[in-house]
Amino acid sequence: MKRRKLALASVTAALLAAGALSTVAAADGATPPTDPAWINPDGSVNVEKMPTDMPIVDSKGRTIPGKTFNMKADFEASRPKGGPKPPSAAELKAEEDRGVKRIKHADGSEEVIEPVE
Asked: Which of 7, 50, 52, 115 qualifies as a cystine partner to 69, CB 3.0-4.6 A?
């Protein structure tokens, strides 16, 4: 958990620094920096191009020698696995009270029909 918070803080610091640099660069008339190679034009992440290890930086943007974090592992761990959790009994009861109908199909999929007023 501590490692994840440190990684998140490092990425946040790097992104803030990049934003500050691009703002200064834009004010000077210079071209702002480009996105890293693992960021697609639509802003999504291409995991295959993402580097495994990223340096950790301090509050002044200087890299800390010998300190890195595994960016791919942290990114993969933060992605939800297995889709949404099934609703609890209380949630199902509340849906039923609102007139929501759930239909389970033979292939395992589920259809939710909500009343519209």
From this structure: 7
Which are the contacts of 112, defined by CB distance < 8 A and separation ≥ 6? Answer: 100, 101, 102, 103
State the pTM of this model.
0.33
Query: Which one, of 55, 40, 39, lies nearest residue 6 by Cα?
Result: 55
Sequence-distant (≥ 6) Cβ neighbours of residue 40 within 8 angstroms: 46
Q: How far apart are the first and last CA of the chain?
A: 45
In whole angstroms, give the CA distance from residue 3 to residue 23: 30
Assigned token pair, 75: 């990114």
Residues 100 and 92: their CA atoms lie apart, in Å, by 9
Residue with tokens 């071209």: 31
pLDDT tens for residues 59-82? 888 888 888 887 777 666 666 666
Give the contacts of 29 (CB within 8 A, at least 6 positions apart).
Answer: none
User: What's the distance, CA 33 to chain centroid?
Assistant: 22
